[in-house]
Amino acid sequence: MGTSDTALILQRLLAITDTGLSFAASDFDRERYADIRDNLNQLLSETSHLEPDELSDLLRPTDFYATPLVDVRAFIVQQGKICLVRGQQEETWALPGGFCEVGLSPKENIVKEIQEETGFQASVVRLLAVFDSNKFQPQSKQYVKLVFECQLKEGDFQPNLEIAELSFFDPQDLPLLSEKRITKEQMQLLWDIYQNQQEQYID
């Protein structure tokens, strides 16, 4: 069993213990779940290769039923090139997008993210893919990544608090990607779906 497999098992066990702590019917059960969580914390701290901030995020208890986070991304193509953004103080690139905010639908969230990061209004064409982060980029939390084909409307890009640069890249000549957000394999899948008008990819 590899390190990534062990991390996924520990991730799953932590989610189960957090759910148990939230819904346990007795003090005895809560005490047992808390003891299990303490031992999992120690095991993960000793075996994980996660960065300190990622480890701290993973070990932070939840007070609700543990579920994956939802991430939305925009796949925007103009003249055969894909829109990517580079965050402030970062050297890597990613599709525009971010975590879903409470109170907004996934479609509303991606339109909001595009406007905030690029300065452009946008419309959603269709859902291209539903990715599981545990399959493509295992990390401290599990994410469900929804990637929408979008079209830019009026607007103008200006560097902002989040994004330093926006550019369009040939799908066969992509820059260094932020692998935690999007991988080359995912980009190739998305391009194939877009180019060939294939059905959505769903993990």
UniProtKB/TrEMBL annotation:
UniProt protein name = NUDIX hydrolase
- What SUPFAM superfamilies does UniProt report for this protein, alphabetically? Nudix
Question: Domain of life of the organism in this record?
Answer: Bacteria
For this UniProt record, the keywords arranged alphabetically read as follows:
Hydrolase
GO MF terms held by the record: hydrolase activity
Q: One matching Pfam family, short form? A: Nudix_N
UniProt organism field: Streptococcus cristatus
Q: Which cofactor does it need?
A: Mg(2+)
Cite the Nudix hydrolase domain residue spans from the record.
67-195
Instruction: Write down the InterPro entries for this protein, in alphabetical order.
Output: NUDIX_hydrolase-like_dom_sf, NUDIX_hydrolase_dom, UDP-X_N
